[in-house]
Amino acid sequence: YDPVHHKLYLACSRLSETVTNVLVVINPAGGGIERQINLPGPAGTMTVSPAGDYLYLSLNGASRVLRLNLPDLTTDLLFATPGTADCDIVVFPGNTRSIAFSAFGAQIPSPSGVWIFDDDKPRPVSVPGGYNGVGLIEPGSSSNQIIGFTGSRFRTLSLDAEGVRYANWGPYNS
Q: What is the rounded distance in angstroms from the CA atom of residue 18 to the CA atom of residue 147?
């Protein structure tokens, strides 16, 4: 849901026999489809930036990220990622051109890591994956942290100009 423009976005790999890989814009007030656009591949994870200026979508099993301008849905950026099968994306509130990207799901061990991208450029320091690695991510309590879930525990990750690092096991230990 886009709270700035009051729209719902639905990515469909197959809308009908002849319509595949589309993004549908729904007006929740009226319940109707306002428009649809073709996507350059099957979509996965989708998130709207906090300011409502971008819609980010993972494509092709998280191997690429598409950034669309809102509200007109024009392509702003399409870039490759180290993604595998699934991913999670967090957009930073103070800098909507930067995202945290976690990849997981297709490798053994899974997940495969967490990266910070500024536009299409990855920062040099990333969090490696592997057993007990972070898969799912959410915004933290400040703009320089995210919270990651390993499958059994929460981890705090710190962000800086070089990238992302494990900070600690966080206050959510059991």
A: 41
